[in-house]
Amino acid sequence: MRAKTTGQGNSERQKAVKILARSLYKQLTSEGYDDKQIVALATELISEVTNAMASEHVARETTPPPVISASR
Q1: What does the alpha-carbon distance between residue 25 and residue 15 come to, in Å, rounded to a whole number?
Q2: Where are the alpha helices (DSSP H) in 1-72?
Q3: Which residues, including other chains, have CB under 8 Å from residue 5's CB and lie 6 or more apart?
Q4: Domain span at 23
Q5: Domain for residue 1, yes or no?
């Protein structure tokens, strides 16, 4: 499940993601991975996120609404 952030927290999270991406890229290139391999990794990450989002969407669409009973 994804964490939701708003306002200042979202801005900080975006900065952290950029720093993480830069750091990961530097580490991968220093370990000998070439740009094509790094793009393949990024593609796989996008695929994983896309699949997770699709699964969440299907789960929301197929989950019946809660039954509300009136108690007296």
Answers
A1: 15
A2: 7-30, 35-62
A3: 13
A4: 8-62
A5: no
- Report pTM: 0.65
pLDDT, one tens digit for every residue, the chain (72 residues): 555 656 678 999 999 999 999 999 999 999 999 999 999 999 999 999 999 999 988 888 876 777 787 665
Residue 57 lies in a domain: yes
Calpha distance 59→17 (Å, rounded)? 28
Q: How many domains does the chain have?
A: 1
- Residue 52 counted as domain residue: yes
Whether 37 maps to a domain, the answer reads: yes
Q: How does DSSP assign 49-65, residue by residue?
A: HHHHHHHHHHHHHHSPP
